[in-house]
Write a structure and sequence with these properties.
262 residues, mainly alpha
Length: 262
């Protein structure tokens, strides 16, 4: 191992320790999971299966993994936006605006008078007061020209995005976990994790940690079955390896999930 590699590992350890200290006060008030000892043994077995270097700090690696697994219970994940849903919403917006144009142009005199009386009783001030049939349409044309046509064209663009398949959304917490596992894999073994999406030593390590952390359905985050799907472990192994490769020589990204204390 070169001096440069040693310095990089030392920097990673210092950053990791600072991160742990920053969350320890909050997490320390939370009860450990009921299967903490069993989980620790499973993590240790997964690390030993890697055949780590003689000077590898296994206890430190176990502690890092446990810290991140503990945070999973308090991670609030924002679902990825879906093109189909966006297209449907844009078409709904276009239709609603088209309907509003038609209705406001056809309001009878009683309706116009009553809506303005209610507005006056509530001391409201509007740019337009529905006195003339074309006022609402004029507001749209002035402030949102061609909004209906734009919304429909945007919906068509999202339709074309759907043709390419499922959007490449990723669970941010599991991506961060996989990136940590990739960094630990290289630190423990001296070899970088494979960027391949095929099953290998690193993806087996990721799968073992998912099992230890009871992450059975990573995308849905619900234990529907007591097994980790091969596709999920392979996917997140590839994601973690890529994130780790991109982070080399750069400032590590901030963890982007919320810790909720209960």
């Amino acid at each position: 191992m070169t001096d440069r590699d040693k310095n990089m590992i030392d920097r990673q350890r210092r950053r990791a320790r600072r991160s742990i200290e920053a969350t320890r006060e909050a997490l320390g008030r939370l009860a450990p999971p009921p299967n903490a000892e069993e989980r620790r043994r499973a993590i240790t077995r997964a690390i030993n299966d890697l055949r780590p270097k003689p000077d590898a700090d296994i206890n430190f690696a176990v502690m890092l993994i446990e810290q991140l697994l503990d945070q999973r219970r308090h991670a609030i994940e924002v679902p990825s936006a879906r093109p189909a849903e966006g297209a449907e919403q844009l078409r709904g917006l276009a239709e609603a605006l088209r309907t509003a144009r038609t209705i406001t142009q056809r309001l009878n005199p009683l309706a116009r008078e009553e809506i303005n009386q209610v507005k006056t009783r509530h001391n409201l001030k509007w740019q337009y007061s529905f006195i003339l049939p074309g006022e609402f349409s004029g507001l749209l044309d002035e402030y949102y020209p061609s909004i209906i046509e734009v919304a429909e064209e945007a919906a068509s663009q999202l339709d074309r995005a759907k043709v390419g398949g499922r959007p490449k959304g990723r669970n941010r917490y599991l991506s961060a976990l996989a990136a940590l596992l990739a960094a630990l894999f290289e630190t423990l073994t001296g070899a970088p994790p494979s960027l391949s999406k095929h099953q290998g030593k690193f993806s087996d390590f990721v799968a073992a940690i998912f099992v230890a952390g009871e992450i059975y359905e990573p995308e849905k985050n619900t234990p529907k079955s007591k097994s980790v799907s091969t596709a999920s472990s392979l996917h997140y192994a590839a994601v973690g390896a890529k994130l780790h490769e991109e982070s080399k020589g750069a400032k590590p990204p901030e963890i982007s999930w919320v810790i909720r204390l209960e």
